[in-house]
Amino acid sequence: MKHTAVIFVCMGNICRSPLAEGILTNLAETGGLSRQLTVDSAGTGGWHTGTAPDRRSIAIARKHGIDISLQRARQVSQADFETFDLILAMDGGNLAKLLRKAPENRKHKIHLFLDYASGRNENVPDPYFGGDDGFLAVYNMLFAGCSSLLEKMALDRAS
Question: What region holds the Phosphotyrosine protein phosphatase I domain (predicted)?
């Protein structure tokens, strides 16, 4: 597999995208693929810039042996459209914002995460206003999607 740079994008970069970053990084490390991947996350909005992920995201990640507590929220920048090979939006609203912001010649890099990873044209719901159960459901969706993404990337590189 050749080196690939992936960025996950949600609204504020404190719930879904930091979890996805942590999960994919962990899967790549345990699978011996960390040298082939650069993984990051960002938000379409900048409200939480510089803050740690939501405590519930940190807790659900920790429960699964993943530490995301050192991540800090940031907003998507124009440089990200150049730097990353795959820009994966958590939902249709963030996908639309990314497509509006991206240069025309970089829009091919932007995809809905679950659609790209596993062919499911589905949003990853924002768990921010819900309870712990919502964070567990999102973790499970992200884990399945990140697992599929790694498989897809390995197959794409092999062909």
Answer: 4-152
